[in-house]
């Protein structure tokens, strides 16, 4: 996406925010009804076509409705991670544990964190010790077969330690939030992660979820955690 057109970036963000909240493709008529969008219908269709040509959104069917692609989600996350918007987010509530007490172990952190985020929270140390909580977060939303099938795949990916092997290959600086999309032959899902130091041990904390997730909420909570542990 070209640097000079911030309107396209804004439109992409609105499309993804509404796709996440609605759980269905987003059409131009729906976008035109939103307060955040003040483009003429012809301009809106033009911008949606530009997003599609740039492969930030695509049409699952022959209609005007769009779904974000992995490239679109990456643009969306890059933009949000680089801003300070999260500092003023409604998700920046107090994380309910004492930081000094939490330093006694990553397990204490995870036991508090999984109740706040959307997804499964996984941590592991270099010695391959690992722990995860939040499977119920996935199962409570498994209301249709595609989601349920992906949920089963994610659980297997975690329990067989594939996520540990995958993230261990990444170059990760401490106290920074990263994201990645894990793509297999039949399934794709998202992962936010960060390296932290607790009791002089380097560990990695990650939040795993299918592609449609409240990224801003998870990012804000993970960044708040890093602030407390800094």
Total number of beta strands: 7
Give the CATH H-level superfamily of the largest domain.
Answer: GAF domain
Number of domains: 2
Q: Order of strands across the widest beta sheet? A: 4-3-7-6-5
Question: Residue-averaged pLDDT, rounded?
Answer: 80
Q: What is the second-level CATH architecture of the largest domain?
A: 2-Layer Sandwich
CATH fold-level label of the largest domain: Beta-Lactamase
Largest sheet: 5 strands, antiparallel
Q: Order of SSEs, N→C?
A: HHHEEHHHEEHHHEEEH
Identify low-pLDDT runs.
none
The helix fraction, in percent, is: 40-55%
Distance between the termini: 34 Å
Rg estimate, integer Å: 19 Å
Q: What structural class do you assign from the helix and strand content?
A: alpha+beta
Tally of helical runs: 10
Shape: elongated
The fraction of residues assigned to DSSP E strands is 15-25%
CATH secondary-structure class of the largest domain: Alpha Beta
């Amino acid at each position: 996406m070209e640097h000079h057109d911030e309107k396209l970036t804004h439109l992409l963000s609105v499309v993804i925010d509404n796709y996440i909240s609605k759980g269905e493709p987003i059409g131009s008529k729906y976008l035109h009804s939103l307060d955040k969008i003040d483009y003429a219908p012809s301009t809106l269709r033009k911008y949606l076509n530009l997003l599609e040509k740039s492969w930030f959104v695509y049409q699952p069917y022959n209609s005007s409705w769009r779904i974000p692609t992995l490239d679109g989600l990456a643009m969306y996350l890059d933009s949000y991670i680089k801003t300070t918007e999260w500092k003023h987010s409604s998700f920046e509530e107090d994380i309910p544990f004492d930081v000094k007490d939490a330093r006694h172990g990553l397990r204490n952190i995870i036991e508090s964190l999984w109740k706040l985020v959307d997804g499964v929270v996984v941590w592991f140390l270099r010695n391959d010790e690992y722990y995860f909580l939040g499977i119920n977060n996935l199962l409570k939303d498994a209301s249709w077969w595609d989601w349920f099938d992906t949920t089963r795949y994610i659980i297997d990916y975690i329990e067989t330690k594939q996520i540990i092997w995958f993230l261990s290959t990444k170059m990760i600086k401490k106290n920074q939030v990263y994201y990645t999309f894990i793509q297999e032959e039949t399934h794709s899902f998202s992962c936010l992660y960060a390296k932290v130091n607790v009791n002089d041990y380097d560990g990695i904390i990650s939040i795993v979820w299918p592609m449609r997730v409240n990224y801003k909420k998870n990012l804000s909570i993970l960044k708040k955690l890093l602030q407390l542990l800094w």
